[in-house]
Amino acid sequence: MDADEIPPRTARLVLVTPNGRVLGILPPVAAATPWWQEAGPVVRAVRDRLGVDATILRLLETERDRPHGGLVTYLAETADPASVEPWSGILDEQPLRLPYARPGGPAADLAWARRALEAHGLRPSGAPEQVRSWNLSSLWRIPVEGQVAWLKVVPPFFAHEGALLARLAGGPVPRLLGHEDGRVLLAEIPGEDLYEAGPAQLLDMVALLVGLQRSWHGRAEDLLALGLPDWRAPALEAAIAAVVERTADQLAASDRAVLAGFLSGLPRRFADIAACGLDDTLVHGDFHPGNCRGEGSAITLLDWGDSGVGHPLLDQPAFLTRIPADAVRPVRAHWHDRWRAAVPGTDPDRAADLLAPIAAARQAVIYQGFLDRIEPAERVYHRTDPADWLGRTAAILGG
Asked: How far apart are CA 276 and CA 68, in angstroms?
């Protein structure tokens, strides 16, 4: 669905105290954006229109069966007295619930951030601003004496980001102010998010990624020791087969037939990819212009929680699908030229062609992993993604 087809979002907040006592539910408010995970617009609307300072904890219920827009009900925490209506719902307990989705969780994260800032001789100069909260991250903007720090808290399956950023320090990645148990505190990056990057910046992004990947070429074990997931041929082949089996009843019969042939040919396909000469290395996992920030040629690559270990060109399809159509050919050629220069004698053209359906199927694996490791109320974010990505895989194989 295109952004202009998404209906507006209306939010209702079920309020609890910091110790978890249910207060009731607030009247609905209109949010400025439709995106469910964006907590900031809801927090501001509730404060401005109802006079209540609240912190979003988690999703409770959605009117629509897939993101985004519509009526959304959140659980939120407040220490303010509030005029609420009775709420007859039940707050259940879930073993997969994240700490930041519980009362007191965000306060504990912010307390950790303050200690990390103090270790650098920095103090907050204003109230922290909640930006996002969902099953993949909690994000806060913290004003700090003329600058800004960003607190990001993630689930265990993304918790390797801090250790990886520490190892990549000095490279084109965010400057780490601290990390611990899924929490990272990051310094502000000058410039803007580069969703609308021009041709020169797109080439620069690719060059930065290839440079990082080249430095880790052939060092897969070092990356795995940091906790990054394994997307090398044996592990990825098994994971793709498992997600196809689990999702089969959601797929068209024609797609199931195509994917059966794909699975039987995966060992040979991976062998042919290996023969192209590029070793496994660092994979960003969600590389696209919006995960880059900067100005001019000064670009930082963001959001390394999705990173893993596998073929470097697994990062290419997602990037090429999010840039203007007339930029795809020159960016792809530049990408492959960089690898031919970095590792002479390789064949990135053939490797990329062979990897295209594998990269799409890997996305199905990733989203199934999210569904398996998040609490039920949040699965609406990703429920259809494994089948959708396997459908795309079949379409690629069908030419």
From this structure: 41
